[in-house]
């Protein structure tokens, strides 16, 4: 460790390393914290609807959100609430005096939050509508029908946002890039990671394979610790399967990360009549976000190398920083799994 800080004697790299530590510390408690609300309105018979409204929770606190319609609404049943690990799910049945298409829907309280709301409406005639409401645009007009392109766009944007704020997935990719320095091997490793998590994302979302989310999230954190450790081993001149054939490890851990992506997609909610399209769009969004992150990171490193020589200790320091944050996540998630211990 002394050699590490001695190698960072250059003020520029010392400032960079401290900034990295501060950034990782800031995000260490925020992996997968960006969760949208979800509203499903399904017309079971003419004018009568089954409603499901899922709002995120942080501990015992629920976001103060409610769904309002511009037309006259009559509740046929009381609102039934049940709490999951990180959301409040409310269900009820209602009747509308006027057709739902043509009405405005607003998520009351959204403007005072930092989350979005995904709204999915299914009409008795088979027409569907999906949209994304935001704090700046908390309401929308329900049309009579919607194109598949709109569904694709909505879920693709959620895929991009999920990877952009999925700090544990981004840290894994960063650690992988610290190992793979050759661009051909990097393409091979990233392709293997993409193919693997696409497989498990599809299988888990369609219900073919199921794994509990808590152990999956814990193992994702541990996978980052293991890859960060391999970076340090490589800088010491040691050899391993991860160092010589990183695509194999990327594929293996990619299968695990795919279950994490699937958990986010299932939690978000899927339009039952457009599941394959929504799944494809979400996956495309994840890949676009991942490629954008890799491009930005490579551009930053390339630019830095034209200004100053990157010391070996900076790479080792980055691996230590990533490993420490991932280890914190691992302990945190293990504690959540086994609170009695």
From TrEMBL:
Signal peptide: 1-31
Keyword Heme: no
Record keywords: Membrane, Signal, Transmembrane, Transmembrane helix
Pfam families, alphabetized: HupE_UreJ_2
Residue stretches spanning the membrane: 162-180, 187-208, 214-232, 244-266, 278-302, 314-331
Entry keyword Transmembrane: yes
Superkingdom of the source species: Bacteria
UniProt-listed InterPro entries: Put_HupE_UreJ
Name listed for the protein in its UniProt record: HupE / UreJ protein
Organism of this sequence: Phyllobacterium sophorae
């Amino acid at each position: 460790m002394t050699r590490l800080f001695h190698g960072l004697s250059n003020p520029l790299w010392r400032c960079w390393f401290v900034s990295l530590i501060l950034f990782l510390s800031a995000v260490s408690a925020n992996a997968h914290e960006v969760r949208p609300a979800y509203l499903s309105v399904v017309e079971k018979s003419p004018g009568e609807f089954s409603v499901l409204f899922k709002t995120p929770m942080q501990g015992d606190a629920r976001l103060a959100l409610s769904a309002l319609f511009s037309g006259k609404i009559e509740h046929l049943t009381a609102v039934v609430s049940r709490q999951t690990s990180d959301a409040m799910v409310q269900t009820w049945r209602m009747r509308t005096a006027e057709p739902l298409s043509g009405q405005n829907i607003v998520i009351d309280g959204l403007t005072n939050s930092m989350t979005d709301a995904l709204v999915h409406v299914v009409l008795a005639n088979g027409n569907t509508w999906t949209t994304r409401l935001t704090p700046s645009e908390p309401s929308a007009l329900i049309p009579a029908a919607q194109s598949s392109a709109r569904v694709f766009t909505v879920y693709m944007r959620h895929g991009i946002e999920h990877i952009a704020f999925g700090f544990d997935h981004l840290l894994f990719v960063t650690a992988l890039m610290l190992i793979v320095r050759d661009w051909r091997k990097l393409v091979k490793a990233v392709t293997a990671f993409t193919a693997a998590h696409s497989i498990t994302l599809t299988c888990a979302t369609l219900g073919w394979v199921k794994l509990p989310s808590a152990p999956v999230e814990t193992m994702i954190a541990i996978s980052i610790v293991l890859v960060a450790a391999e970076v340090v081993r490589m800088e010491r001149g040691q050899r391993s399967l991860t160092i010589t054939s990183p695509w194999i490890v990327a594929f293996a851990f990619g299968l695990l990360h795919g279950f994490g992506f699937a958990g986010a997609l299932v939690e978000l909610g899927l339009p039952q009549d457009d599941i394959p399209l929504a799944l494809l769009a979400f996956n495309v969004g994840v890949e676009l976000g991942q490629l954008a992150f890799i491009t930005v990171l490579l551009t930053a490193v390339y630019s830095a190398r034209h200004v100053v020589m990157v010391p070996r200790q900076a790479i080792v320091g980055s691996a230590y920083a990533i490993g420490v944050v991932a280890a914190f996540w691992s302990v945190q998630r293990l504690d959540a799994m086994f609170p009695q211990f």
